[in-house]
Amino acid sequence: MESKNKLTKKDYTITTLRSYILQNSFNYTDYQGVGYLNSILPALKKMYKDDPEKLKEVAKANLEFYNTNPHTIPFITSLQLAMYDDGQSIENARSIKMALMGPLSGIGDSLAQFGLAPLFSTIFAGLALSGLAFAPVGFWLAICLSLLAVKLLMGHLGYKLGTEAIKILSSKIGEISEAANIVGVTVISALATKYVKASLAVQYVAEETVNGVTSEKIIRMQEVLDKIMPNLLPVVTTIIVFYLLKKKKWNTYKLLGLLFSVGILFSTLGIIK
């Protein structure tokens, strides 16, 4: 494909800084979707200023569910913009974007919540106990500056990877995109089996005779189902929710209403727990 290369380092830096308002439009329909589009919108307008229809198409493609760590998202936005600027397809860029959502969530959460925050808390709490009045402000400044450095570094890495590696691997970008898509689906599937809770409460009592002695044994249907196919109900629930979201265009509130209603009804009837 023909490379456009309309973006400069300044455009990537502006996009990185715009990620500070990523959470301002957070909602329970598409989570960070609106904020993500808002972050990259000035760069998109610059790239497609002569093609309004293409701008609408790309903008609409990015107005979707997204949820990752706000401090590492500049890596994703820079990489995706570099792919657009290189002339890559919307679907290829989307596959990379979705595949990076899960891994960078874990990296960002670990770095910010379990790395920087405890580190600076320990340092400045000790200074505060020693009577240094500047300690609380020092903690705030240290956190803000370190997270700014993380954002800028992530944005720069995404830009470098996007502008350099894509040109080298342009002939393989379709295969890379497909592999990223597989990784993304694998991550989502693993999360579904771990965090979606659905189990049968149905059980019955059966008589069992051993050496002429008859005793009662409780047969739990969930245990039987787990022996046949573990985590089947969470997977089925996830597939149904995905179908309603993707094919029937349900919003989050309709889905929550359905899940609450079905959960309460089936729980009352003793079908699930």
Please provide a written account of the structure.
The protein is mostly helical. The protein has ten helices and two strands; from the N terminus they run αααααααββααα. It has helices at 9-18, 33-47, 52-62, 73-85, 90-129, 135-168, 173-195, 221-228, 232-246, 252-268; strands at 203-210, 213-220. The protein has a two-stranded antiparallel sheet. Strand 1 (203-210) and strand 2 (213-220) form a beta hairpin. It is globular and about 85 Å long. The relative contact order is 0.10.
For the structure shown, list the relevant keywords.
mainly alpha; two-stranded antiparallel sheet; globular; 273 residues; 10 helices
Q: What percentage of amino acids are in beta strands? A: 5-15%
The coarse silhouette is: globular
The largest sheet has its strands arranged as: 1-2
Percent of residues in helices comes to 55-70%
Rg over CA atoms: 25 Å
Topology of helices and strands:
Layout: H1 9-18, H2 33-47, H3 52-62, H4 73-85, H5 90-129, H6 135-168, H7 173-195, E1 203-210, E2 213-220, H8 221-228, H9 232-246, H10 252-268
Antiparallel strand pairs: 1-2
Helix pairs in contact: 1-2, 1-4, 1-6, 2-3, 2-4, 4-5, 4-6, 5-6, 5-7, 7-9
